[in-house]
């Protein structure tokens, strides 16, 4: 009983973060800020902007963004740019601070998450220029593999619509394997926290025995059991079982329901983004909306630690 209650509270806490980290390459603020500001205001969260300053020997000679021969000038320019971005966030009534550290981006981001005890990371998958692509493109897979908090990733096709910053419709593909109930509960809590309509989707492989009528009926029953009376809730929770290619059906359904977010569950036994042709990578690359990845076993947050004694009493 205690474990179930703790898990329930942790899901709700992660659905409404009080500490958000935004990883920035300094060129992506225009499409990341609407998401950061909307999510911070929704849960009264504090925002920390983080930027990793790469060692000069790792920078491409054609980058042409800053004169990297002068390290002091680099640091000053980065700090000035970060403070300018922070000022835009603060002007919307959101508290914000900045951190610029020397090092490899994945390492810097993970360290800042640890220091700030963040509950959510928001980032772009790559920037618009060669340097930005190197900073938050080639290392995005490592960050997503190793960060144990929900990560909202804004892919290349999800940048043009700021309306997605406040989700009204959320799509959650359900694997019906492993600890899928944990992620489904997180998706439901996320939907409730944002007053968003939620669709739970399960995709059956049409070329396997999974597509049998018996399996189809079982999948529908399992999805319905995740959200009893879901259609009667406000906002409602819908369930959908389809046959087809996993990536294609996820993207097709997201387009049909005009999803603002896609929530993907991640089994900790497997990396979130282990290969370039993985389901997560394909969905993130092609989706017209942000993708939020949630690990089945996220690290214990500072708020869940503080409430353990209360949860023991409730159990």
Fold blueprint:
Elements: H1 2-15, E1 19-23, H2 29-43, E2 46-53, H3 71-90, E3 96-102, H4 105-116, E4 120-124, H5 130-136, H6 140-146, E5 151-154, E6 169-173, H7 180-193, E7 197-204, H8 213-226, E8 237-243, H9 246-256, E9 261-266, H10 279-286, E10 291-295, H11 302-306, H12 308-314
Parallel strand pairs: 1-2, 1-4, 2-3, 4-5, 6-7, 6-9, 7-8, 9-10
Antiparallel strand pairs: 5-10
Helix pairs in contact: 1-7, 4-6, 9-10
Compute the CA-based radius of gyration.
Answer: 20 Å
How far apart are the first and last residues' alpha carbons, in Å? 6 Å
- The CATH class of the largest domain is Alpha Beta
Q: Which oligomerization state do the chains in this entry correspond to?
A: single chain
CATH topology of the largest domain: Rossmann fold
Percentage of helical residues? 40-55%
- Counted beta strands: 10
Q: Overall 3D geometry?
A: elongated
| CATH-scheme architecture of the largest domain | 3-Layer(aba) Sandwich
- What amount of the residues lies in strands? 15-25%
Tell me about this structure:
- This is Nucleotide-binding universal stress UspA family protein.
- InterPro entries: Rossmann-like_a/b/a_fold, Universal_stress_UspA, UspA.
- Belongs to the universal stress protein A family.
- This protein has twelve helices and ten strands.
- The chain folds into two domains: 18-149, Rossmann fold, CATH 3.40.50; 163-297, Rossmann fold (3-Layer(aba) Sandwich).
- With 315 residues, the chain is of the alpha/beta class.
- Strand 7, helix 8 (213-226) and strand 8 (237-243) form a beta-alpha-beta unit.
């Amino acid at each position: 009983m205690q474990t179930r209650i703790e898990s329930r509270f942790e899901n709700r806490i992660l659905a409404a973060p009080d500490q958000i980290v935004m990883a920035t390459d300094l060129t992506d603020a225009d499409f990341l800020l609407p998401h950061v500001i909307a999510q911070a205001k929704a849960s009264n969260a504090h925002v920390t902007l983080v930027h990793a300053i790469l060692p000069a020997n790792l920078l491409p000679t054609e980058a042409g963004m800053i004169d990297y021969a002068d390290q002091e000038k680099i640091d000053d320019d980065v700090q000035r740019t970060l403070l300018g971005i922070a000022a835009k966030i603060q002007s919307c009534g959101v508290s914000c601070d900045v951190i610029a550290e020397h090092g490899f981006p994945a390492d810097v981001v993970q360290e800042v998450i640890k220091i700030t005890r963040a509950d959510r990371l928001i980032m772009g998958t790559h920037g618009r220029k060669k340097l930005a692509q190197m900073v938050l493109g080639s290392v995005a897979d490592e960050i997503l593999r190793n960060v144990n908090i929900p990560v909202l990733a804004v892919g290349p096709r999800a940048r043009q619509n700021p309306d997605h910053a406040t989700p009204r419709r959320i799509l959650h593909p359900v694997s019906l394997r492993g600890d899928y109930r944990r992620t489904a509960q997180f998706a439901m809590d996320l939907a409730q926290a944002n007053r968003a309509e939620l669709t739970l989707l399960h995709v059956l492989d049409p070329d396997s025995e999974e597509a049998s009528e018996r399996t189809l009926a079982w999948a529908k029953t399992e999805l319905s059991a995740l959200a009893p009376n879901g259609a009667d809730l406000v906002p409602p929770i819908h369930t959908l079982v389809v046959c087809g290619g996993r990536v294609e059906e996820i993207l097709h359904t997201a387009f049909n329901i005009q999803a603002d977010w896609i929530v993907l569950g991640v089994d900790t036994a497997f990396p979130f983004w282990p290969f370039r042709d993985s389901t997560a990578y394909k969905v993130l690359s092609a989706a017209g909306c942000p993708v939020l990845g949630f690990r089945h076993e996220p690290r214990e947050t500072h708020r869940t630690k503080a409430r353990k004694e209360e949860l023991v009493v409730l159990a």
